[in-house]
Amino acid sequence: MLKYLSIRNVVLIDKLDLDFQNGFSVLSGETGAGKSILLDSVGLLLGKRAEVGMIRSGCDKLSVCGSFEVVDKTGELAALCAEYDLEFNHEIIIKRTLNDDGKGKIFFNDQPITQKLLKEIGGYLVEIHGQFDNQGLLNPATHLSVLDNYGLYADKLTTMRDAYAVYKKAKEDRIAAEEKICQAKADEENLRHWVGEFEKLQPQANEQEELEQKRQQMMNAEKILENLDAAYKALNQSGVQSSLRQAQAAVARVNNLLGGKFDNIYALLDTALVNADEAGEEIEAASNEVSLNQNELDAVEERLFALKALARKHNTTIGELPQIWVQMSESLQHLARGEEDIENLRKLEEEARRKYIEKAVAVSQARLATALRLDGKIQAELPDLKMEKARFMTQISTKPETQWNENGRDEVCFMVSTNPNTPYGLISKIASGGELARFMLALKVNLAQSSQVETMIFDEVDTGIGGATAQAVGEKLAKLGEKVQVLVVTHSPQVAAQSKCHFKVGKKTVDNVTTTFLHELTAVEKTEEVARMLSGERITDEARAAAKVLIGA
Fold first, then answer.
1. Strands 501-510 and 485-489, how do they pair?
2. CB atoms < 10 A from the CB of 542, how many?
3. What's the pTM?
4. How many alpha carbons lie under 13 Å from residue 430 in its C-beta half-sphere?
């Protein structure tokens, strides 16, 4: 719930700090006093677009700060915050600033966030309803989720959504396979020709590096042989091995005299002799590998040329040719067995569709039962709201298969009939302004227990009603206030009288500077304000008496 609101330099408000209570609170005041500015300020905390025109004249910056108490730390709001690494411990403090250059900042418990994210978060904190609000319950697109939140079948929804995910994947796999085989058929002649070229050339992995290395070796064959020959001669003709053997024999004689003292030297000479022998053999083998055959060099260069030409043809590299060869071969194989594969995919898709429908039907049945229960409860509220002849009905219909999704096959609409023998219609199309407010209240009273929003703000939803009807609306708002925090902007004395807490909005002008102010009324001041709302500018004793009756009723 909204606990605290601080406003600085917003239109007519220079400085305002408010503490809010739970339950049902009202804000009243003369037209133009600035009640809408308060709602706009709250809107900024919920992600509404900030405009430079909202900055108080003569100021270079506005700021709004709000503190929200959050009871549920495991719900969807908590999950959303966790997704963005936003931490809170039962309290969320949102601060928003805007400079006159149009630049602003938004903070969530001192962590900067975007306006888009704030709008998502704000949707879980506060609902704002105007008289002709086209969001929330008046928007048919929300009716299905409202019914699902009210119902007790979350497990059925989960299994249905899982089944839809499987069905969707199976359908996508079948479509992809059909598209692939269609493309393969269109390219079949080219594919066969290209695969023939690949099979003739037989490109191998890492072949380019090996061929280029071999080519480099063959191009320098004479120099390589010349140097290898020089190394062999130096090793064998200079008497290196003979000298090593002589040195080893001399050391052996010393070891005989000294009892093997210099065995390590003997071992080193022995190793050198072995290495010299092996080096000579390796040099000889390396010389034998070097080819001076010009035909072989030509063959290597022709192979490289052919590979490069094939790579250019397919707009790739030589290294990727083997992979492309595999892909083309697989396409031809898929073409050969494609129809069989697609038939298997169709069977999998049909089975997934059947299971999805089975789960969706179970959800539809749960929705129908929940709708009957909700309709009965709302219908029971209407007489108290002076709408004895009105009827409310939750209409559930099956959508065309092209519109099925993870939420099932149902379309849910809240329908009303305001007079006997008149057809039902969408609540937003049939009801008048005053009727809309009362239908909404009847819904909200029953849906509050399943709503995650802990604060609801109603902006003059009682416009167009009065007398006993307004009294009934006030009672329903008070009842709703027992479940969630309710803030109501009203001109109705009957509604204001029912409030737990009453704020009065006013404005004053000093030195041609107008400022909006607001303060919480005492019991005596509340009686006076309700009396003003009853009688107008001149408050009579009769109005005061009537106000006391309303407040005490």
1. unpaired
2. 11
3. 0.60
4. 18
Query: Which of 200, 184, 196, 203 is CA-nearest to residue 323?
Result: 203
DSSP string covering 352-397 = HHHHHHHHHHHHHHHHHHHHHHHHHHHHHHTGGGT-TT-EEEEEEE
Buried b (16+ CB within 10 A) or exposed e, 255-289: eeeeeeeeeebbeebeeebeebeeebeebeeeeee
**How far is it, in rounded angstroms, from Cα 129 to Cα 381?**
19
Q: Which residues of the chain have pLDDT under 50?
A: 132, 134-135
DSSP state letter for 166: H
The token duo for 331 is: 């396409």
Compute the half-sphere exposure of residue 491: CA atoms within 13 Å on the CB side of its CA.
15
The packing angle between helices 154-186 and 321-381, to 10°, is: 150
* pLDDT single digits (tens) 208-263: 888 877 777 666 666 766 677 777 777 776 677 778 888 888 888 888 888 888 88
Please give the pLDDT value at position 68: 93
Residues 450, 128: Cα–Cα separation, whole Å: 17
State pLDDT tens for residues 331-352. 777 777 777 888 899 999 999 9
Structure tokens given for 311: 């790579």
